[in-house]
Amino acid sequence: MYINDKLCKNCKGKCCKYFPGVTLPEDFGANINKETFYNELVKAFKSGKWAIDWIDRKKDMYFIRPAIKGFEGWLFDHRLSGECSFLTPDGCELDPSHRPSGCLLLEPKKDGICLPHLTTEEAAKFWKNYIDIIMEAAIEAEKIDFEF
Q: Record's superkingdom (predicted)?
């Protein structure tokens, strides 16, 4: 885990302004149990602050990342760049224990060119075994509750 609030605050989150960090299934409880994992994904998707992105849809190479500012609520989003929805003028609004693995594995550097230790391709490989759960959670999150 690479957290250096001082360096990040000085550069004002250049990395976070370029592209949100990627997650791993464990970030949503896949290592706890299937029900927790599913419920955490549904909750995240319903919040509008998380998106499903992909490298190659034909090969089921999907991954989860924070939504891009201005596009919150777009559940499936394949934008190549944009500012993380969790970035504030004071830094990340997420407590380090709730940040995406890709953010925690981003090594801050003084020159502002941070070193990623988790790529989107690597993350997508971890998510590959969970594609059915991702899609089920997305369908559940998109359901509209009608009350009359």
A: Bacteria
**DSSP one-letter string for the chain:** ----HHHHHHHTSHHHHH-PPP--GGGGTTTT-HHHHHHHHHHHHHHTSEEEEEEEGGGTEEEEEEPBTT-TT-SB---S---BTTEETTEESS-GGGS-HHHHTEE--TTS--EESS-HHHHHHHHGGGHHHHHHHHHHHHPPPP--
Does residue 103 belong to any structural domain of this protein? yes
Rounded to 10 degrees, the C-alpha dihedral 11/19/68/125 comes to -140
50-65 confidence digits (pLDDT tens): 999 999 988 999 999 9
Assigned domain for 19 exists: yes
Residue 148 belongs to some domain of the structure: no
Q: Is 147 a member of any domain?
A: no
Reported pTM: 0.89
What's the domain range around 51?
5-142
- Structural domains counted in the chain: 1
